[in-house]
Design brief:
Layout lengths: L18 H20 L9 E3 L22 E7 L1 H8 L3 H10 L10 E7 L9 H4 L5 H4 L3
Parallel strand pairs: 1-2
Antiparallel strand pairs: 2-3
């Protein structure tokens, strides 16, 4: 932890169970297979599965970057990525002042952005035009 005031306050440990993610991906594959059986024209389309996690439980950071090849990628939404990054570049004193006063002047506006976790083993790739509107490299290549 970077906050010295939190040193020696104990150890926080949480077991992360990725079973639900795996189960939901398998369910999405079953649904895609049913769609392709009904409409063979959709067979070449990539399969993206969207997850919405609790604010404190974004388990995608722990999820492997290679998974079932039927899934092209996993999506989730994250709030204020550029604002948080800009805030992190401020000095500690400036951060504390802004948190105390609530002043967020000259920081990027609030936003919601797609985070795309590309499957490195995917049979059908996510189109570049879609990847370009998502945050990818900083998040899926860092693990």
């Amino acid at each position: 932890m970077l906050d010295e005031r939190l040193c020696d306050t104990g150890v926080f440990e949480n077991q992360i169970d990725l079973t639900k993610i795996r189960d939901n991906l398998a369910d999405a594959i079953r649904k895609r297979n049913a769609l392709v059986a009904d409409d063979p024209n959709s067979a070449d389309l990539p399969l993206l599965v969207a997850f919405f996690f609790d604010f404190f439980a974004d388990h995608l950071v722990c999820y492997p970057r290679t998974f079932d090849p039927e899934v092209s990628g996993i999506l989730t939404i994250k709030k204020d990525i550029t604002r948080i990054e800009a805030f992190g570049r401020l000095s500690t004193d400036e951060q504390e002042r802004r948190l105390r006063t609530g002043c967020m002047n000259n920081l990027p506006a609030n936003s919601k952005d797609f985070i795309l976790i590309r499957n490195k083993a995917a049979r059908r790739r996510v189109p570049r035009t879609f990847q370009d509107v998502c945050f990818t490299e900083r998040y899926d290549e860092s693990i």
